[in-house]
Amino acid sequence: MISKIGVIGCGLMGSGIAQVCATAGYETTVCEMSQELLDKGLNTIDKSLTKSVEKGKLSAEGKSATMARLRGTVSLEELSDCDLIIEAIIENKNAKKEVFTKLDRYCKPETIFASNTSSLSITELMMAVGTERRKRFVGLHFFNPVPVMKLLEAVRTLVTDEGVFDEVAAFGSKIGKTVIRTSDRTGFIVNRLLVPYLLDAIRALEEGVGSIVDIDNGMMLGCGHPMGPFTLLDFVGLDTTYYIAEIMFEEFREQRFAPPPLLKRMVLAGMHGRKTGRGFYDYTDPQNPVPMKL
Ligand code: 3HC
């Protein structure tokens, strides 16, 4: 039975994952590389819960109880008694391999390992770690912002135990997500559809089909998307999108996954979207993003 959760990484995704786990009643331990990063992540969670209290969505007691279920650490060893570990560190195979290899030594044999990777193969990661717990190694792909987005992709490999997969799906429902089940193919369900769409928007811009604002408005007002493709690209991060596209292109060798030259140039120039203040829009005034002249 899953009752104790370990989350590795307390950045954008990790803090959101830890927040939803603790809110749902799970004892949650979140691990970061340094005390500074840990404090920053825990502070983000605290602020997010305070907002929920202000909006009347959570009681003040509910917030205190959630924070009491949440523990921070900078030592992976402290996650040894967790039933489920969700890794949400940078999208780098070697970094993830290192973390799981250490955890494999510290954790009990029953602990389920899950990666929040959006593009790496779970099977490759699992084999790189060389773990004996192959039947208990899955993908759990969350969406940004984690406390808001209702979806969770549960990824099974060819050797995942059916009972384990059902257990993680039940966990996903308990933290309030709608779980969709998918096999271990790069991009899973959502990024397989989303990434070519985002890349095509960049190609349309390069071809002069429309401006940044007109293409964004087209998809928002014509198709009911909450964000147009360029606003979403800036939100996800152009570096992240480029990285995912490269991995998908390498896997499938299909043109639709190839990152367009403009995306590469923007990433090289440090225009990574909202987080760097510039992407397809300039966020000098975050409330009033101005489309870039590209
Ligand atoms: N944390 C917590 N809550 C947040 C939040 C955050 N980071 N950002 C927004 N919210 C909450 C707001 O507080 C607000 O709550 P309320 O309804 O109780 O007042 C609610 O979400 C709506 O926010 P806003 O009114 O500020 O703004 P919007 O109505 O424009 O919604 C949005 C913001 C939810 C981000 C919406 O624009 C959206 O759904 N955008 C698309 C996001 C998306 O597609 N995400 C997936 C990206 S792909 C991915 O993550 C996979 C990866 O592998 C690439």
Task: Give keywords.
eight-stranded mixed sheet, alpha/beta, N-(1-d-carboxylethyl)-l-norvaline Dehydrogenase, domain 2, binds 3-hydroxybutanoyl-coenzyme A, two-stranded antiparallel sheet, 294 residues, 2 domains, Rossmann fold, globular
What report would you give on this structure?
The model has no long low-confidence stretch (mean pLDDT 97). Helix content is 46%, strand content 15%. It is built from 11 helices and 10 strands. It folds into 2 domains: 4-183, NAD(P)-binding Rossmann-like Domain (Rossmann fold), CATH 3.40.50.720; 191-280, Orthogonal Bundle (N-(1-d-carboxylethyl)-l-norvaline Dehydrogenase, domain 2). It is an alpha/beta fold and 294 residues long. It has helices spanning 12-23, 35-54, 60-68, 93-106, 122-129, 162-174, 190-206, 212-223, 229-236, 238-252, 261-268, and strands spanning 4-8, 27-31, 70-73, 84-87, 112-115, 137-142, 151-156, 178-183, 281-282, 290-291. The radius of gyration is 20 Å and the shape is globular. The longest helix has 20 residues, at 35-54. Bound molecules: 3-hydroxybutanoyl-coenzyme A. 3-hydroxybutanoyl-coenzyme A binds at residues 48, 55, 118, 143-145, 147-149, 191, 226-227, 232, 236. 3-hydroxybutanoyl-coenzyme A is lined by residues 48, 55, 118, 143-145, 147-149, 191, 226-227, 232, 236.
